[in-house]
């Protein structure tokens, strides 16, 4: 079944208030083109799920699309520092920060993946995080009577993942670090993939053991070379420091509009070429 | 009065050599995001006394031999490539849960004398003055890793406080290394173990918000010529200075 669609049709799958998981990690292989389209389509009140996020979370918050962010770490790392749009929105009470450890987001997704209501986490102890957050509870192990902390399951409505190669059926290969993308693809109800390159189904079959997301789990595929830009894509391109710097420094609405329009051509290039 | 030696040494290099010497051969050692300094220290240890150290990281490259370190990230492709295996981050956490991760480099924003770490907020948790990047790895690793090595590139009384605003975690903190000093966690409290040759005991005491026992405190070594040559070979572009 041919699942290749335009970016606007793919993102129209997302409804206001959805829980959306984003693949990649910090400034690496984030699904940036898909995130930009979310902002363009003015989606609202999304609940974002990420282990360690940076520019994509910052953009979605700046675009006024976000109600809450569930993550272990939100920052651009050392050189570009804290995600200021995210941070200011949390401090102003506009966005709820569901603070997790990166690992408890993984555990919550694992629970979602196997359809159980929560996941025990051995290492979460001695922490004020447990009482401060409703998604952590301490329960009694029914076998030993010991206490154990558990985290509530997370089942995203949609996962957005940018991959290296994909065929028209959605069978996807990820080059380089996979981070938590495979886990997200299992726990989420629907998967939208953007890909650097579409390859043929017969080429995919020659690389069977490298396919990490089987097509039968995937709802939509969008052909977007450079779909992670201005973040990095392994083996292909590094971050664009100027774009990130401008995004961070040009704080007014014009700055956001310029950022979105500067990428409009690249994000939709393959649609114009009518190449699927 | 600074010696000729002192004038040319960056605190990062003293910290890197100090940290490298805290790592042992054959240990499993992990660092996370924003960790350029421990990353270089791990690679230095592997060139010196810890050739069989198992270097683990977020992208999942085991024992990666990076050719070109990224300046802006310690979670990227550069430290995934040229490894001997792939061991993803979730597996590294799982390993620590099982009690088999030897060392983790972690951070935080506030530390108090009893070993509490705050990486979450300044102010009230639900209405914070500042929302910090978050629990990241520390919240589950500090209680489970065999030794947590914490490093900070700032040492001031806002970092080393009498009482943290929020306890993100507490546990197996072994040492805290800063540009001024090394603290060791011993007998349920943080004790001053050593100071940088670039500073004085008075400066350390002045910049620490809890009382420190200054007895038996030694002075750290400057890096040797050989150590500096190795560091420059590992990190010719100076990514280790990015955290300062």
Automatic annotation (TrEMBL), chain A:
SMART domains assigned: CoA_trans
InterPro entries in the record: CoA_trans_fam_I, NagB/RpiA_transferase-like
GO molecular function: CoA-transferase activity
Keywords: Transferase
Record bears the keyword Mitochondrion: no
Any Pfam family hit: CoA_trans
Transmembrane helix in keyword set: no
Highest taxon in the source lineage: Bacteria
PANTHER family: ACETATE COA-TRANSFERASE YDIF (PTHR43293), CHOLESTEROL RING-CLEAVING HYDROLASE IPDB SUBUNIT (PTHR43293:SF3)
Family: Belongs to the 3-oxoacid CoA-transferase subunit B family.
Protein name: Glutaconate CoA-transferase subunit A
TrEMBL record, chain B:
Gene3D superfamilies given in the database record: Glutaconate Coenzyme A-transferase
Parts of the chain that traverse the membrane: none
Keyword Lipoprotein in record: no
MF terms in GO: CoA-transferase activity
Keywords recorded for this protein, A-Z: Transferase
Ranges in coiled-coil conformation: none
SMART domains in the cross-refs: CoA_trans
SUPFAM superfamilies given in the database record: NagB/RpiA/CoA transferase-like (SSF100950)
PANTHER family: ACETATE COA-TRANSFERASE YDIF, CHOLESTEROL RING-CLEAVING HYDROLASE IPDB SUBUNIT
Family per similarity comment: Belongs to the 3-oxoacid CoA-transferase subunit B family.
Protein name: Glutaconate CoA-transferase subunit B
Species of origin: Paramaledivibacter caminithermalis (strain DSM 15212 / CIP 107654 / DViRD3)
């Amino acid at each position: 079944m041919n699942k290749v669609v335009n970016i606007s049709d793919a993102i129209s799958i997302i409804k206001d208030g959805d829980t959306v998981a984003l693949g990649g990690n910090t400034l690496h292989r984030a699904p940036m083109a898909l995130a930009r389209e979310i902002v363009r389509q003015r989606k609202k009140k999304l609940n974002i799920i990420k282990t360690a996020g940076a520019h994509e979370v910052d953009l979605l918050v700046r675009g006024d699309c976000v109600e809450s962010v569930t993550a272990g770490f939100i920052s651009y790392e050392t050189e570009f520092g804290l995600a200021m749009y995210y941070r200011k929105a949390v401090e102003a009470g506009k966005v709820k920060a569901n603070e997790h450890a990166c690992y408890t987001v993984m555990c919550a997704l694992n629970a979602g993946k196997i359809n159980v209501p929560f996941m025990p986490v051995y290492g979460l102890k001695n922490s004020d995080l447990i009482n401060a957050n409703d998604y952590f509870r301490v329960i009694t192990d029914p076998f030993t009577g010991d206490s154990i902390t558990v985290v509530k399951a997370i089942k995203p409505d949609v996962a957005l993942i940018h991959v290296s190669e994909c065929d028209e059926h959605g069978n996807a290969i990820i080059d380089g670090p996979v981070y938590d993308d495979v886990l997200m693809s299992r726990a989420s109800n629907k998967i939208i993939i953007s890909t650097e390159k579409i390859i043929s189904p017969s080429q995919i079959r020659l690389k069977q053991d490298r396919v990490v997301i089987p097509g039968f789990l995937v709802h939509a595929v969008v052909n977007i070379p450079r779909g992670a830009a201005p973040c990095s894509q392994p083996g292909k391109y590094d971050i664009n420091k100027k774009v990130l710097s401008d995004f961070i420094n040009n704080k007014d609405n014009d700055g956001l509009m310029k950022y979105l329009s500067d990428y409009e051509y690249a994000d939709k290039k393959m649609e114009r070429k009518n190449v699927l | 009065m600074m010696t000729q030696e002192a004038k040319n040494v960056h605190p990062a290099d003293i910290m890197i050599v100090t940290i490298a010497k805290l790592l042992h051969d054959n240990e499993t050692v992990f660092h996370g995001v924003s960790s350029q300094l421990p990353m270089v220290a791990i690679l230095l240890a592997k060139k010196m006394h810890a050739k069989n150290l198992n270097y683990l990281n977020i992208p999942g490259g085991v024992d990666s031999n990076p050719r070109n370190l990224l300046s802006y990230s310690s979670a990227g492709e550069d430290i995934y490539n040229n490894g001997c295996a792939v061991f993803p981050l979730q597996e590294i956490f799982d390993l620590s849960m099982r009690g088999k991760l030897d060392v983790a480099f972690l951070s935080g924003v506030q530390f108090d004398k009893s070993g509490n770490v705050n990486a979450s907020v300044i102010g009230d948790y639900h209405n914070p003055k500042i929302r910090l990047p978050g629990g990241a790895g520390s919240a589950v690793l500090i209680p489970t890793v065999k030794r947590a090595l914490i490093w900070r590139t700032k040492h001031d009384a806002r970092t080393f406080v009498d009482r943290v605003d929020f306890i993100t975690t507490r546990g197996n903190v072994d040492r805290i290394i800063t540009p001024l000093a090394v603290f060791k966690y011993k007998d349920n409290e943080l004790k001053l173990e050593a100071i940088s040759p670039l500073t004085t005991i008075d400066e350390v005491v002045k910049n620490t918000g809890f009382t420190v026992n200054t007895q038996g405190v030694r002075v750290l070594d400057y890096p040797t010529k050989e150590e500096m040559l190795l560091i420059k070979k590992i990190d010719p572009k100076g990514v280790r200075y990015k955290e300062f």
